[in-house]
Design goal:
344 residues; mainly beta; Maltoporin, Chain A; 16-stranded antiparallel barrel; two-stranded antiparallel ribbon; globular
Length: 344
């Protein structure tokens, strides 16, 4: 038994209202027969102030703080040179939310290792509460199935097709992804709780192509189509360029993404008091998001006990526009961070 990899990093996010700092670490330990186990921890330290609009209030207070802790453990079982299996568990806790996720999957190489097929299943169970009411509890369960196929087109080109299906079942009081704190102001001037459907089915399909441009440059592009039973339809395209310098001692990356989403069937800028469904979640409305970023990684090889030791940093900017939201129709956010990774 020996440590194969270890990493530590800190990431951050800010959009002018909310700031999040997220430290984390991970370790992977190798076992005989090519097996391995891994464990990770992460935290989100959240502070901020929400604008004084009824449809976007996190709580009755305009300023708030929160701490979220997450842990995960997993095992990878390499049963042969052609196929392997893995299992995992992850959990997340905060003052008014608990989540548990367990999963298992396998992948197999075929056609002389020119293709790889993967299958993954996860089950997630969540409980949402209120910080001001110990008796309040909303539950949700999700079942997620992922299918993947990666194939080598030629010596410089690789393609990947991914498909995902998810079914969510939630408590009937508020429904799926509704917030117990958020209120919806009706056209009659009433402030009512959100009410979403208590079931939601989701499907997504994606295709990606990676192409090497010489020995030190690669380009990646992809498209993703999303749809669900709430009539949300989404399209995402992304493109990234990677450049290695000094025999991979320095790696530079640039990326861009554009996403367009339609509104849920029950989304409206205003509701009557007798509306069956109502939401104050602006992310269920029509929106457009642009994201662009850069990343850099520097590595040293054969340093002391490390086969590879690297430092990385990234910076991303997100522009978000909500087409039908009455207040704050657009805003931007920054993501940044860095980390240390060691391979033994």
């Amino acid at each position: 038994m020996h440590v194969e990899e270890a990493s530590a990093r800190v990431d951050a996010f800010t959009d002018g209202w909310i700031s999040v700092v997220g430290p984390g670490g991970a370790v992977e330990v190798g076992l005989p027969k090519g097996w391995s186990v891994n464990a990770a921890w992460s935290a989100d330290i959240i502070t901020g102030a929400t604008p004084r609009v009824a449809t976007d209030a996190v709580s009755s207070a305009t300023r708030f703080s929160e701490l979220r802790n997450g842990v995960s453990v997993g095992a990878n079982l390499a049963s042969s040179a052609e196929w392997s299996a893995h299992g995992s568990y992850s959990g997340s806790t905060e003052s008014d939310f608990v989540s548990h996720t367990a999963g298992a999957g396998a992948k197999v190489d075929a056609f002389g290792r020119m293709s790889t097929f993967s299958l993954d299943y996860k089950a997630r169970f969540e409980t949402t509460g209120r910080v001001d009411d110990d008796a309040y509890a909303e539950t949700a369960a999700a079942h997620i199935l992922d299918l993947g196929w990666t194939w080598i087109l030629d010596r410089n080109t690789k393609g990947t097709v991914l498909a995902t299906g998810e079914w969510d079942a939630c408590s009937e009081a508020l429904g799926c992804v509704a917030s117990p704190y958020r209120k919806v102001e009706t056209m009659q001037g009433l402030a009512l709780s959100e009410r979403h459907p208590d079931e939601r089915g989701r499907v997504a399909a994606a295709v990606r192509v990676s192409r090497a441009l010489g020995s030190a440059t690669a380009v990646h592009g992809g498209y993703r189509l999303y749809s669900d039973t709430w009539a949300v339809l989404g399209h995402t395209v992304d493109l990234s360029l990677i450049r290695s310098l000094f025999h991979e001692a320095l790696v530079l990356r640039g990326n861009a993404r554009l996403a367009r989403q339609g509104a849920a069937s029950f989304w409206a800028a205003g509701y009557g008091g007798d509306s069956e469904w109502r939401t104050g979640d602006r992310d269920l409305g029509a929106l457009t998001a642009w994201q662009a970023g850069v990343a850099v990684e520097g590595a040293r090889f054969g340093v002391g006990p490390f086969s590879r030791l690297s430092l990385s940093a990234h910076l991303d900017h997100l522009w978000l526009r909500h087409d039908d939201f009455l207040q704050d129709t657009s805003h931007d956010a920054w993501f940044f961070g860095g980390g240390l990774h060691a391979a033994f």
